[in-house]
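Appendix B. Chain record.
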Amino acid sequence: MSRIAARFESLRARARTALIPFVTAGDPDPATTVPLMHAMVAAGADLIELGVPFSDPIADGPVIQRATERALANGIALSDVIAMVRAFRATDAQTPVVLMGYLNPIEVMGYAQFAAQAAAAGVDGALVVDVPPEEGHDLVGALRAQGLDLVYLLAPTSTEQRIRRIGAAASGFVYYVSVKGVTGAGHLDLAGVAERLGVIKSLIPLPVGVGFGIKDAATAAQVAHLADAVIVGSAIVSRIEDLAATPQRIPAVIGDFLSGLRAAMDGADRG
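Structure tokens predicted for this chain:
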């Protein structure tokens, strides 16, 4: 059983919804990322999504685009992100870490080399935004050979046929994009989310995380009532941006924010 599957099984046994924060590796500087990862775990994060900077992040809104630009300006490459996970694992062998990004940096490194290096460093899975299951056979094979999970996105417009196809290809969990558009965009329609999650869960057995549009504790608590995981990205990254000039403050401030989300989520009854 993968570390991701084991974590969701443990959470399910406790009727607890996972809290999954997203941050861009190397933003606002390389030295902040690993301490921030530890601070997020201490604040109640159950898994971590670590963004791999890429020059053309087509699925991301302006907040995360700017984070990527800051990280790239710091010279952060895929190998540096893997090294950050290795450093994180020196004192945390339990918290699953998923790399989230785009195919080009992986292709440059090579599928097999990426999978081997990621697994050796303690990465648990990857969410590669621009690789649909129909085109990801080589990547899937490389990841599976190293025991890594491949997480896929589902959209409000995904058909039942598409949901089944994603469910057959994915492992670990699936990520439901709760709004149409890029990260940080749109108003969260909770009734619509509940309806779509009902369809998704009737078609695939994997845990379902919900992200895009979760900005505060109240919304996190509402989504926690519906989903297996609450995924928070832009609300965290925008706070990091505000503190870019004082990076030493970032772990504590983000920790406080996540602690508030965690407390609100834990107070929500699971449906």
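Further analysis of this model is presented in Appendix C.
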